[in-house]
């Protein structure tokens, strides 16, 4: 034992010895202001706690009971509470029974004898802490009888002490007090009603409210309803007696009750709110008291989750509250400091009343909504605007800005009045009113955009530009610049560009202003303008960048740190806007400055650090591979930043300093990607893969930790997206512990999301629930779906990365995922659950076969789900299982075909909403033909599959299917060629459409098709080939002629079809309602085309067919123009589309490597799945087309996009918008409307033909389809391993055939039914109808027949390219529709017995 240890032991012995003064000295030293003395005392105290806890505890209790020193008694009570608190240093179990008994007795004795109130409260805390640990186990049976004795005693001190302990025990162990609910109700009521001591009544009020909150049963809470008047009377009596401190305590307790149990107040809500408003209106009371009364009412309004809509039923009180808040906004002085603008404090002259009124207006509007608040505002604000006082003008404008977020939907309906009201105040003589008007425009631009920008840019931007000239009022100038930021964020480049000259020039002037706040405002505005105008900002780059670099280099002192940080932000956004070619010359200088700053020592509160991280991410995006040389310098400090501050990449959406939150959230993924590229390309200064691993090890845990702390649903979805991207980049660098942490967090996310959804469902059942609350719940559920979507993406990434190694984690998650398949879940949840299983089946292949018994029943049922996206995911999964499932899938081939039949054969299958499901069903059918041919009647099924080709919606599946067809033709598959090659015309037609289409096959497949066609040209008799080609569309004939020529290529043929010279006229068969070209249009096209032709004959004047309005002339014009274009087609020059980007908006990659496009438009409440694609560019073009169609040509796109009005996406969006419009129009008269995207077979004229598509022993007649036959195959499914006992399971009672062979389910000898559906794939693809088919019973069908006749015209004319003289005669006799169908069976034949 060394000397210091011996000394400590001797000191410990002295402290715990018989002399009490030594221990008192130790306690006194613990309170010493000397660090050295206090540290030495703590060391001795901890030694005593470790070696002799009994003596230490008794010494403290003795000091608490007998010490004459107040500080000593108080410190003893605090130390005892810490020792008896259940944490890591919990001392109670280590004490002997004798010590424990002594402590309990001493504490109760001290409560009775202590006379100092502050020490008594500390004693109550100590007793409550100890009781919460031992009372549930009956470890202190004397306590509750003692407390009930105290509350009935004559001692005010003991009454208060007992209620203080009851209040804390209700918080800690309330369930232990519930058996005494009757006794507690009695003592609470007696005290609140009869006690004259306010301290006792406040303590009782605290105990009542805490106890009510611990009751889970509403009937138990209702037992305390009769206490509410006495509870409110405690407040009013305190105010009447002038005891505002007590009143404020009571208000704080009642506010807590309003937030946690608002329904407890419902029965007496009118009286309670009336009392609070009276307090708020009493100007004689202290501001703090009035503010708390207002807070109570606002808290009630915000308690939507527990009492939705309750406060909206009290409009008279809402009007009074609004008036109170408006009067509070008048409490503002015209402070000279505001005008001098020497500092950035914009609150100069504003009182606490003003601040509270401003905040509460915002909260009130968000909680109650526009339908409640806007009528009140419309009634009160005009009087403020008409008054002569500047304060009232100012208050009205501030109020308008504050309520905009919560009232945006209603205010958009009155946008003209709102904008006019605000803009008129731009010219008010008082600068603070002008400032408030600018502030309102900035807020409205955010909350009412982009409608405000689209409709009023010609009024708002000039007004803001003029405000920037107010040099007498720098705050007005700075705020005008900030408003330009808000306005431009929701602006398209097309709107903003005409104003750029004036706006940029004024902002450059402000940059030279002597006031720092003006300079900072100008910088942020320039950054936003550049970001919104993109390449249009190049014009101003040379003028702007020198200013920005000067600020970056010279703003070095502490006072200018924010200015320098904002210059970084502005430079990086300008660089991104103009592109690296323009930015490259300045980039090196900027990067050098940033790297020097990165290496310098910065203070912890320096904003440069966070701004620099965002700037690095943007510069990385802008410079691409040119950024890689900087990685070795940039990344090490960022590693430390990622380690120390995991939240630096995630910033609040409310931050005033953010230009683009997406940049902040994407910082880490972008930098991680750059680090990986630097290593792969050898530009990381000798660093290897461990460098990427090190970075990944910091970033992924940081994101998971930040995600764990994030309560906001929308931000949570964004963080999940960022995490997914980091996982994709890191790949196999992610270790098992990190995968574990991600999986555990996903479990928590799913659980929390499910809990939130249950809470919303409960809110919808509340008696105060109303339509406005329903709209809010709908928006919250949409955000929730985005969270689930991101969960699915993360799991897909992990499955793709780790394949079978991830399956143990998948099994853990199964109990969380399986309930998502249930019909009570949303379509998006069902789709995500299916996609996760699809990924498991596709990536894990044989290792995933063990899950088929569990999940295939779900998959089969989902094939006929009412939602097309769910159907698509399900039929895709069937295709995967057919490909890799082998013998496990074989028994289900028959049921799979039956399910696919319903999808493919439905009359609406090729509608835009359903075509993706149709294409995937066709692909799945092809895989069954390929991998399970021995289980089907291939001579019938394969031609039926051919009958469905080509597919053109899902470009990924199109490539797979068309490659399969090509392979089958190459090996002369007799079943695809047909007897005597009778299916050859169909095959040639498919090849032609694929060759003429966009991205319907890979380059290799296209070349193979060309070789096959050239082989046919050489081997087939010319007459047979000519007959086959004559059945094709004109543009297909042109393409094949080009290909079959000795010099033609696939690209030339596609360019021939897609050439820009054809824009404005499509060679596709005419559609109903096609546009007829007038003389002027025809001549214009002729002129445009002639300039692009090499042949001199192209300049020969061409006669034109004039528009006389008749159907006959319309046909003639179509035929003439078809022939005209055909004649000169060989001279048309091809065109190409470049791909300038590698990262696109609206596009993300699936784990399978495929790219998906999706568009969301929150203003129109549209979310549309656009399909899966082979490349990111294809997906990006699909997004661009949808974005232009939904938002107009000014919207942000990935490419310069031309939108075809006849494209599948165009039709899909048009149908969706029309459907939503019709739903809105019919909502007042119709309670249920069948969605346009839903496939439902109704009893109509098609009944017989629909029924005939199905197996005769099947009851499938709609989506979803019940199945009610044998369940023998599925009875043996084992669930215990995956924990599905309580999970949703589909009704698979109709699965056909069990384990029996399924070939017998097909009927190769069946014939077409008499009521055969005319909408066959052949007919839809343009073949000719048989004569007198007898199915058209209305004019719409007659029009369809006319369309098919026009198709015949096109084919016949194209067969004789120069036969223009016979057009008129042909049209007059073109009514014979006796041409025969190609002799191919359809799926309906395969499932209908003779």
From TrEMBL:
Domain AP2/ERF positions: 1143-1200
Example of a GO MF term: DNA binding
Gene Ontology CC annotation, any one: cytoplasm
Compartments (UniProt record): Cytoplasm; Nucleus
A Gene Ontology BP annotation from the UniProt entry: protein import into nucleus
This protein's record includes keyword Transport: yes
CDD domains membership: AP2
Domain of life: Eukaryota
Family under the similarity heading: Belongs to the AP2/ERF transcription factor family. ERF subfamily.
PANTHER family (UniProt xref): IMPORTIN BETA (PTHR10527)
Protein name: AP2/ERF domain-containing protein
């Amino acid at each position: 034992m060394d000397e210091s240890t011996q000394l400590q032991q001797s000191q410990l012995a002295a402290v715990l010895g018989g002399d009490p003064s030594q221990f008192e000295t130790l306690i006194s030293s613990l309170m010493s202001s000397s660090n050295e003395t206090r540290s030495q005392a703590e060391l001795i105290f901890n030694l005593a706690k470790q070696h002799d806890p009994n003596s230490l505890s008794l010494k403290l209790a003795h000091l608490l009971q007998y010490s004459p020193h107040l500080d000593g008694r108080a410190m003893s009570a605090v130390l005892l509470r810490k020792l008896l608190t259940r944490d890591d240093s919990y001392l109670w179990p280590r004490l002997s029974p004798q010590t424990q008994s002594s402590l309990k007795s001493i504490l109760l004795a001290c409560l009775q004898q202590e006379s100092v109130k502050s020490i008594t409260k500390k004693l109550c805390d100590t007793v409550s802490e100890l009781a919460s640990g031992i009372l549930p186990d009956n470890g202190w049976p004397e306590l509750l009888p003692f407390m009930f004795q105290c509350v009935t005693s004559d001692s005010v001190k003991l009454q208060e002490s007992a209620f203080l302990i009851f209040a804390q025990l209700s918080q800690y162990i309330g369930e232990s007090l519930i058996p005494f609910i009757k006794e507690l109700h009695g003592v609470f009521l007696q005290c609140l009603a009869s006690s004259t001591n306010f301290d006792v009544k406040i303590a009782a009020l605290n105990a009542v409210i805490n106890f009510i909150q611990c009751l889970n049963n509403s009937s138990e809470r209702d037992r305390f309803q009769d206490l509410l008047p006495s509870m409110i009377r405690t407040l009013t009596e305190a105010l009447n007696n002038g005891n505002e401190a007590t009143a404020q305590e009571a208000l704080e307790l009642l506010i807590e009750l309003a937030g946690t149990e608002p329904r407890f107040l419902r029965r007496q809500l009118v009286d309670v709110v009336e009392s609070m408003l009276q307090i708020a209106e009493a100007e004689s009371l202290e501001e703090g008291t009035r503010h708390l009364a207002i807070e109570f009412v606002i808290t009630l309004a915000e308690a939507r989750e527990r009492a939705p809509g309750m406060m909206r039923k009290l409009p008279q009180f809402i009007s009074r509250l609004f008036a109170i808040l408006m009067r509070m906004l008048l409490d503002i002085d015209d402070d000279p400091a505001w005008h001098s603008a020497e500092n950035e404090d914009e609150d100069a002259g504003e009182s606490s009343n003003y601040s509270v009124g401003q905040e509460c207006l915002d909260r009130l509007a968000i909680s109650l909504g526009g339908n409640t608040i806007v009528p009140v505002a419309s009634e009160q604000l005009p009087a403020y605007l008409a008054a002569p006082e500047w304060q009232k003008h100012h208050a009205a404008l501030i109020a308008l800005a504050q309520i905009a977020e919560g009232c945006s939907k209603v205010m958009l309906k009155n946008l003209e009045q709102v904008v006019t009201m605000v803009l008129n105040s731009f010219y008010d003589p008082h600068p603070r009113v002008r400032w408030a008007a600018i502030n309102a425009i900035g807020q409205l631009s955010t909350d009412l955009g982009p409608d405000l920008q689209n409709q009023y840019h010609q009024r708002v931007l000039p007004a803001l530009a003029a405000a920037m000239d107010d040099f007498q009022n720098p705050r007005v100038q700075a705020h005008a610049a900030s408003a330009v930021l808000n306005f431009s964020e929701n602006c398209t480049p097309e709107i903003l560009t005409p104003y750029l000259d004036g706006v940029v020039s004024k902002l450059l002037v402000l940059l030279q202003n002597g006031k720092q706040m003006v300079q900072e405002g100008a910088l942020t505005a320039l950054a936003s303008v550049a970001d919104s105008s993109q390449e249009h900002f190049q014009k101003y780059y040379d003028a702007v960048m020198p200013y920005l670099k000067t600020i970056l280099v010279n703003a070095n002192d502490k006072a200018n740190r924010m200015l320098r940080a904002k210059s970084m932000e502005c430079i990086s956004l300008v660089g991104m806007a103009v592109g690296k070619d323009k930015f490259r010359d300045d980039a090196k200088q900027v990067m050098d400055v940033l790297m020097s700053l990165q290496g310098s020592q910065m203070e912890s509160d320096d904003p440069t650090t966070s701004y620099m991280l965002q700037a690095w991410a943007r510069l990385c995006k802008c410079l691409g591979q040119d950024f890689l040389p900087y990685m070795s310098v940039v990344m090490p400090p960022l590693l430390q930043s990622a380690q120390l501050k995991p939240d630096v990449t995630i910033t609040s959406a409310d931050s005033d300093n953010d230009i683009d939150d997406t940049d902040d959230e994407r910082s880490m993924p972008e930098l991680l990607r750059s680090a990986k590229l630097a290593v792969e390309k050898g530009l990381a200064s000798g660093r290897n893969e461990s460098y990427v691993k090190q970075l990944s090890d910091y970033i992924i845990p940081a994101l998971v930790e930040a995600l764990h702390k994030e309560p906001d649903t929308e931000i949570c979805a964004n963080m999940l997206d960022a995490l997914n991207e980091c996982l994709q980049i890191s790949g196999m660098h992610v270790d098992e512990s990190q995968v574990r942490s991600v999986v555990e967090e996903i479990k928590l996310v799913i659980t929390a999301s499910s809990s939130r959804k249950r809470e919303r469902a409960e809110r919808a059942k509340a008696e105060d629930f109303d339509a406005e609350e329903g709209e809010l719940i709908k928006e919250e559920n949409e955000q929730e779906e985005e969270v689930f979507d991101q969960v699915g993406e993360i799991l897909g990434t992990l499955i793709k990365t780790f394949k079978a190694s991830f399956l143990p984690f998948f099994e853990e998650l199964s109990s969380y995922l399986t309930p998502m398949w249930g019909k009570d879940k949303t379509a998006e949840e069902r789709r995500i659950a299916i996609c996760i299983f699809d990924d498991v089946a596709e990536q894990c292949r044989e290792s995933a076969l063990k899950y088929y018994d569990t999940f295939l029943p779900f998959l089969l049922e989902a094939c006929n789900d009412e939602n097309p996206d769910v159907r698509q995911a399900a039929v895709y999964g069937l295709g995967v299982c057919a490909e890799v499932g082998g013998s496990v899938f074989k028994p289900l081939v028959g049921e799979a075909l039956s399910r696919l039949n319903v999808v493919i054969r439905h009359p609406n299958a090729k509608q835009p909403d359903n075509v993706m499901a149709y294409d995937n069903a066709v692909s799945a059918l092809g895989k069954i033909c390929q991998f399970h041919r021995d289980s089907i009647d291939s001579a019938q099924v394969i031609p039926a599959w051919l009958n469905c080709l080509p597919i053109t919606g899902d470009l990924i599946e199109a490539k797979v299917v068309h490659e399969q067809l090509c392979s089958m033709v190459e090996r002369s598959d007799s079943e695809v060629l047909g007897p005597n090659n009778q299916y050859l015309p169909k095959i040639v037609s498919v090849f032609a459409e694929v060759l003429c289409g966009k991205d319907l096959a890979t380059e290799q497949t296209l070349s193979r098709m060309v070789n096959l066609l050239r082989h046919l040209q050489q081997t087939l008799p010319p007459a047979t080939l000519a007959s086959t080609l004559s059945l094709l569309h004109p543009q297909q004939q042109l393409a094949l002629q080009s290909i079959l020529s000795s010099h033609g290529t696939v690209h030339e043929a596609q360019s021939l079809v897609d050439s820009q010279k054809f824009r404005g006229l499509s060679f596709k068969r005419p559609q109903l309602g096609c546009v007829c070209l007038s003389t002027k249009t025809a001549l214009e096209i002729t002129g445009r085309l002639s300039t692009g032709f090499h042949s001199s004959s192209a300049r020969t004047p061409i006669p034109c067919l004039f528009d006389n309005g008749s159907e006959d002339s319309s046909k003639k014009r179509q035929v003439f123009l078809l022939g005209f274009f055909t004649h000169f087609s060989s001279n048309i020059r091809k065109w190409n589309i470049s791909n300038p980007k590698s990262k696109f908006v609206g596009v993300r990659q699936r784990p399978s490597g495929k790219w998906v496009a999706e568009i969301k438009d929150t203003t129109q409440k549209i979310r549309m799945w656009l399909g899966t694609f082979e490349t990111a560019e294809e997906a990006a073009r699909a997004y661009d087309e949808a974005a232009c169609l939904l938002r107009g040509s000014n919207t942000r796109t990935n490419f310069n996009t031309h939108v075809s009005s006849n494209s599948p996406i165009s039709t899909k969006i048009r149908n969706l918008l029309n459907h939503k419009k019709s739903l809105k129009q019919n909502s007042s008269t119709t309670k249920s409307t069948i969605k346009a995207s839903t496939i439902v077979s109704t009893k109509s004229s098609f009944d017989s033909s629909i029924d005939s598509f199905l197996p005769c022993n099947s009851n499938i007649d709609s989506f979803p389809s019940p199945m009610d036959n044998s369940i023998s195959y599925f009875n043996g499914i084992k669930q215990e391993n995956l924990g599905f006992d309580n999970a949703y399971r589909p009704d698979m009672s109709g699965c056909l055939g069990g384990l029996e062979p399924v070939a017998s389910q097909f009927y190769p000898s069946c014939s077409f039914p008499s009521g055969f559906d005319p909408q066959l794939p052949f007919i839809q693809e343009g073949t000719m109808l048989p004569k007198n088919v007898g199915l058209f019973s209305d004019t719409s069908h007659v029009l369809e027949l006319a369309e098919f006749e026009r198709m015949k015209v096109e084919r016949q004319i194209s067969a004789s390219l120069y036969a223009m003289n016979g057009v008129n005669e042909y049209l007059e006799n073109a009514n014979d529709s006796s041409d025969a169908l190609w002799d191919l069976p359809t799926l309906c034949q395969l499932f209908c017995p003779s």
